[in-house]
Amino acid sequence: MSDTPELPESADTPNPESPPRRAIRSFVMRAGRMTEGQQKGIDQGWPRFGLSLDQGMLDLDALFGRSAPRTLEIGFGMGHSLLEMAAAAPEQDFIGIEVHRPGVGALLNGLLTSGLSNVRVFDCDAIEVLNRCIPDGSLDRLLLFFPDPWHKKKHNKRRIVQPAFAEQVRRKLKVGGVFHMATDWEHYAEHMLEVMSAAPGYRNQAGDAGYVPRPQERPVTKFERRGERLGHGVWDLKFEQVE
Question: Could you list the active site residues?
């Protein structure tokens, strides 16, 4: 989706005499008017489905009231794919993260309308969510679909898929858990493949092929269908946590 979270600050040694450096962000906060349905989602859905950093490290079994396979999606956009996945797998639990407020409202309204109860939502920086709220070894899948590619070379450092992020994701996945990425930018797909192939503790499920065929469990979005009509490609990568 279009919004992805803030990356950690540079690893450069800070100078105590210098002013604090701004953290590199891999997303742009986009303003947008809330529709009536989206506002309803916020007003009525947030008390039931919303999560905050202040809650600290979550007990996921207590949160969902059961033990089940767990998927976390970073940057769910308007929530259509997350809703579809949650509806198709009611025996699984899902956590979505998105910084675009209308998208959060749209997902929450969809949850209210559909009657689904297996989704919870954060509306803040995913890096902070992973650090402060998601227990190590608790996720069966982490999804990153169509993040901003920051295609200009000078902006490549803003891409969320970097070595430090790969390590952070690895810690949150169970052994055998999968980090599933998808992008419609070939150069970003190559970047993802390079970073993840070098990251310790992972196995590429595609082997030497690099990319997996489009998995059936990943819903096809309107954005993706439009791209296909225009001749755009889509690349899926699945890396399994092995240690």
Answer: 148
